[in-house]
Design brief:
162 residues; alpha/beta; Rossmann fold; 4 helices; 28% helix
Length: 162
């Protein structure tokens, strides 16, 4: 049994329209949401062996805010996660070493929403910024993830935490 957590980066700022999408920081609401998520991750003792994170500024800032709850988990910033299609995210997860039993991915929509739907064959109404999808995965190898083969054990939205 493996555990997979998908965390959408927290709310980002659109204050400066000249800022490149990759470089957009979190806004005040995003910082507050990521701080609430850090407290939740700490409370429920989410302890990933590995964190895969998009290198986009808003994803990195989300990681920085939740990292204290992760108790020193290894983090890899991977350009393949700065994408909005779920298939490259799924491919990257499939490349994770089998010894990793708990994995946290911090990335973007619509990729995470689509991946959640693919993994569970369920229709997820919305995957808001800062939300966390938690899965129980009955595979020995990450490359064996199958459509509809995961159980969504929890879906936490920041507004439910504060």
């Amino acid at each position: 049994m493996k555990n997979l957590f998908l965390l959408r980066h927290a709310k980002s700022s659109w204050a400066d329209p000249a800022t490149d999408d990759f470089d957009r920081p979190l806004n005040k609401r995003g910082i507050e949401a990521a701080t609430l998520m850090r407290a939740h991750l700490s409370k429920v003792k989410v302890r990933p062996d590995l964190v895969l994170c998009s290198p986009a500024r808003r994803a990195k800032e989300t990681y920085d805010l939740v990292a204290p709850a992760l108790k020193g988990a290894e983090v890899v910033f991977d350009k393949k996660l700065y994408i909005f299609d779920y298939r490259p995210v799924l491919e990257r997860i499939g490349a994770v070493e089998d010894k990793v039993s708990t994995l946290l991915v911090i990335a973007h929509n619509p990729a995470l929403e689509e991946l959640t739907q693919w993994l569970t064959s369920a229709d997820l109404a919305k995957f808001p910024t800062g939300a966390l999808a938690c899965f129980k995965v009955s595979v020995k190898s990450w490359k064996d993830l199958a459509q509809g083969g995961c159980t969504l054990s929890a879906f936490i939205r920041p507004k439910e935490l504060g």
